[in-house]
Amino acid sequence: MDYSFDHPIERRGTASYKWDLRGSDVLPLWVADMDFASPPQVVEALESRAAHCVYGYSLVPDSLVEAIVGHLDRRYGWRIDGDWLVWLPSVVPGLNLACDAFCRPGEAVLTITPVYPPFLEAPPQRDRRLVTVPAEERDGRWQLPLDGLEAAVTPDTRLFLFCHPHNPLGRVWRRDEVAAVVDLCRRHDLVLVSDEIHCDLILDTLEHVPSGLACPDAADRIVTLMSPSKTFNLPGLNFAFAVVADPALRRRFLAPGEGLLPFPGCFAVTGAEAAYREGGAWHEALLAYLRGNRDALEAFVAAEFPRVHLTHVEATYLAWLGVEELELDDPAGACRAAGVELSDGAAFGDPAFLRLNFGCRRATLDEALRRLTTVLR
Predict the structure, then answer these.
(1) How far apart are CA 34 and CA 31, in angstroms?
(2) How does pLDDT run across 343-371, given as a tens digit for each residue?
(3) Which terminus of the chain is more solvent-facing, meaning fewer CB atoms within 10 Å of its CB: N or C?
(4) Where are the domains of the chain?
(5) Angle in degrees, 0-180, between the axes of helices 62-76 and 266-278, rounded to the nearest 10
(6) Which fold has domain 54-278?
(7) Alpha-carbon span 98 to 264, nearest angstrom
């Protein structure tokens, strides 16, 4: 089947958070959803479900559990039990649940910066103390700050929030790096919450190793957060899940959400199952298109923006642009004035950067880069 990711789809006027929030004269390359139609098999499944005309409370069918279990086995060789799955409306509630479940008020949550903003927001929202350690760049590549993490652990540190693959750094953490993080948590008796929502968006010839697979003997301290939302462009369906192998840890994780979290709706489970069962060919075509966008972006920045720093993007459809040398008072505001909305690095923990979402048509990316030459060149 031919999947045309260059086909224009008008998103303005659809109550799109990405396209309708900032005005009609701005190209939005910020919030992490893509501008592509979801897999046709997902669309067909949702249309069929809608045609039933009754949208009552839904169970999570065994067929969806089997689809998720099969996907993780085929793609990563990670054999999980269906009983390990915990249903969530998205990954962000999982971060907040973890803060409540594994920390008492005032105790510390550890993470690496820069990072997806909810990592920085969840601990203070839950009255927990946030401790951050900056990632290290060496030889043009971001590295885990293992020594800094070791030094940052205190007797009241209870939880480590880990972004894997990393948003916004675009790194695929290797097996030995993941094992080192798990070892840190084991030695200091920390629970590891591994956000792996971008794990199916590996752009290079690299292997994503789930934290729970890298160290299966540490199952009593690992919560893995996953979702089809980024991979198949389904964030509006509000469906995610946690993989928690240890029963006692799973009970602790579930407890704060009792009576608060909604059960997955009928469209969420229908879309997720269709994506995992039938979206494979579309997914491979998507990765090829994103690689092309990534390569075009990196080449353009190297040639046209010599004072902008961009490390190679191994995974995700998000690029992390260092603009400190430009000495702009408000980098994101300057880009917005030029007609392009990028994510302000300050929200990720570093105001000297901008995040650019290249999960869009090539024509949109090209036009955005043309506009940005007035600011970033």
Answers:
(1) 9
(2) 999 999 999 999 999 999 999 999 999 99
(3) N
(4) 17-40+280-376, 54-278
(5) 40
(6) Aspartate Aminotransferase; domain 2 (3.40.640)
(7) 19
